[in-house]
C-alpha cells in the first residue's frame, strides 16, 4: 500500500473562528500564533512509515520513559509558505529541506523519511490551513517539520519507534520593530559544534548548547551570539541559528565553508546562487575573527549579514566581545545586503522570475 494514498484528513471539529483568526493575524510576531491542524506520520521498525494523516493540532500524550526525553534523538526543519503575486500559494525549496532532514536523521541514527512524503505532508497541511497565511510584506506561514524517538524504554540505543509531525505558525517580521541591523557578541568560552559532531545536523541539541552563549550575548546588550571554531577559537563559524556572510570593498562575498561544523543553510545556498548570478566574486573560505575586526576598522570590509529561513537576511551593525567593540561599515544596512534580500524575497513571493526552479506552487 502506498503511504501517500493512505494520507487522510481529519478536520478540526472546532477550528478558530474567522474573526478571531483575523485578529491574531494582525501582528502575529514570530512563532506564537499556531494554526488549526498538524501533520502526523508514525514509524516503527516493524511497520515502517504508517498512519499518515492531517488532524487537529493538540497536546501530545507522552510517556515519561519516551526515548527522546532521555537520549535526545530529535531533529527538525523550518521552511515557509508564501502568498504569491498571482494570488496563489507556494513553498520555497521544500525538496532541499527534505534532503537536509534525511541527512540529519542519518546522523542521529533515525529512520529517513522519503523526500516525497516529507513534501506531501507539508503540502497537505498548508492546504488545510491556507487561511492562516498573513497578508503583508513580511507575512508567511512558517512550517516546522520535526521527528523524535517515541519508543518507551530506558537504554542507550537507537529507538525502534518515532513520531514525525509538522506544525504551522503564522508569522510576520522575525525582529520586533522590523528590519534593522543587529549587534552580535563573540563567544570565547562556548562553542556550538566540533569536527565529527552534529554541527551539520538540524537537531535540538545544537540549539540547546547555544543558549547559554546566547544568554551571555543578551546580558552584554547584544542581539545574537557569534560562535568560533572549537579547535582554535579563531575562525568565525555561525550565529546561534544563522549563517554568516561578509561583503568586502572589492565587491567580493565571503562565507565560512561547510566543513561539518556549521549548518548547510538553504537560505545560505540560495544567496550564494543569487550572488554568483549577479557576477559577484564569491568565496567559501575560513574567516578569522581578528580579520573581521581588522577589515572592518580599515574599511576593507563594508558589510556583514546573517541569514536563515526565519529572519531571511539580517544586517550586522556592530560586533562586541571581551576585547572590545567595532562597527561594520556605517553600522547600517548596506546596499549588497539590501539587494540580495530583495532579490530573494521577490522570488519567494512570486514577484520576480524563478530561473532556479526554487518555488513550489501549491495553487490558490
Short description:
By secondary structure, this protein is an alpha+beta fold. Helix content is 25%, strand content 29%.
Pick out its properties.
364 residues; alpha+beta; D-amino Acid Aminotransferase, Chain A, domain 1; D-amino Acid Aminotransferase, Chain A, domain 2; 2 domains; 8 helices; 29% strand; BCAT_family
Structure description:
The chain has two domains: 8-171, D-amino Acid Aminotransferase, Chain A, domain 1 (2-Layer Sandwich), CATH 3.30.470.10; 182-348, Alpha-Beta Barrel (D-amino Acid Aminotransferase, Chain A, domain 2). The protein is an alpha+beta fold and 364 residues long. The model has no long low-confidence stretch (mean pLDDT 95). The strands form two sheets. Strands 1, 2, 3, 4, 5, 6, 7, 8, 9 and 19 form a ten-stranded mixed sheet that branches. The chain has helices at 18-24, 68-71, 94-107, 115-128, 204-219, 266-277, 289-298, 335-348, and strands spanning 8-9, 33-34, 37-44, 48-56, 74-76, 79-83, 89-92, 140-149, 161-171, 182-186, 224-228, 236-239, 243-248, 253-255, 282-284, 301-308, 312-321, 324-327, 359-363. The two termini are 30 Å apart.
Kindly report how far apart the N and C termini lie. 30 Å
Q: Briefly, what CATH class of the largest domain?
A: Alpha Beta
User: How much helical structure, as a percent, in the residues?
Assistant: 25-40%
CATH architecture of the largest domain: Alpha-Beta Barrel
Shape: globular
Instruction: State the CATH superfamily name of the largest domain.
Output: D-amino Acid Aminotransferase, subunit A, domain 2
- Name the structural class: alpha+beta
SSE arrangement, N to C: EHEEEHEEEHHEEEHEEEEHEHEEEHE
Strand fraction equals: 25-35%
CATH topology of the largest domain: D-amino Acid Aminotransferase, Chain A, domain 2
Amino acid at each position: 500500500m502506498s503511504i501517500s494514498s493512505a494520507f487522510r484528513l481529519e478536520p478540526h471539529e472546532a477550528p478558530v473562528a474567522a474573526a478571531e483568526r483575523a485578529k491574531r493575524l494582525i501582528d502575529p510576531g514570530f512563532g506564537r500564533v499556531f494554526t488549526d491542524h498538524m501533520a502526523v506520520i508514525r514509524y516503527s521498525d516493524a511497520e515502517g512509515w504508517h498512519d499518515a494523516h492531517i488532524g487537529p493540532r493538540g497536546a501530545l500524550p507522552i510517556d515519561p520513559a519516551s526515548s527522546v526525553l532521555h537520549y535526545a534523538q530529535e531533529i527538525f526543519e523550518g521552511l515557509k509558505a508564501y502568498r504569491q503575486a498571482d494570488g496563489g500559494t507556494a513553498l520555497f525549496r521544500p525538496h532541499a529541506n527534505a534532503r537536509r532532514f534525511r541527512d540529519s536523521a542519518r546522523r542521529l541514527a533515525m529512520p529517513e523519511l522519503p523526500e516525497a512524503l516529507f513534501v506531501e505532508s507539508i503540502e497537505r497541511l498548508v492546504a488545510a490551513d491556507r487561511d492562516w497565511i498573513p497578508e503583508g510584506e513580511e507575512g508567511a506561514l512558517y512550517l516546522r517539520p520535526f521527528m523524535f524517538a517515541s519508543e518507551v524504554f530506558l537504554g542507550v540505543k537507537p529507538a525502534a519507534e518515532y513520531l514525525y509531525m509538522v506544525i504551522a505558525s503564522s508569522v510576520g517580521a522575525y525582529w520586533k520593530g522590523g528590519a534593522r541591523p543587529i549587534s552580535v557578541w563573540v563567544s570565547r568560552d562556548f562553542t556550538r559544534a566540533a569536527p565529527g559532531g552534529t554541527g551539520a545536523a538540524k537537531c535540538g541539541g545544537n540549539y540547546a548548547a547555544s543558549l547559554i552563549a546566547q544568554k551571555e550575548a543578551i546580558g552584554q546588550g547584544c542581539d545574537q551570539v557569534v560562535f568560533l571554531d572549537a579547535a582554535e577559537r579563531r575562525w568565525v563559524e555561525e550565529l546561534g541559528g544563522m549563517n554568516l556572510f561578509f561583503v568586502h570593498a572589492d565587491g567580493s562575498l565571503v562565507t565560512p565553508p561547510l566543513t561539518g561544523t556549521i549548518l548547510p543553510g538553504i537560505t545560505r545556498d540560495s544567496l550564494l546562487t543569487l550572488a554568483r548570478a549577479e557576477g559577484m566574486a564569491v568565496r567559501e573560505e575560513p574567516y578569522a575573527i581578528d580579520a573581521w575586526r581588522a577589515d572592518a576598522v580599515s574599511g576593507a570590509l563594508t558589510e556583514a549579514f546573517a541569514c536563515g529561513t526565519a529572519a531571511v537576511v539580517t544586517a550586522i551593525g556592530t560586533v562586541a566581545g571581551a576585547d572590545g567593540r567595532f562597527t561594520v561599515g556605517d553600522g547600517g544596512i548596506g546596499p549588497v545586503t539590501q539587494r540580495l534580500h530583495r532579490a530573494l524575497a521577490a522570488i519567494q513571493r512570486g514577484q520576480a522570475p524563478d530561473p532556479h526552479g526554487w518555488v513550489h506552487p501549491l495553487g490558490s
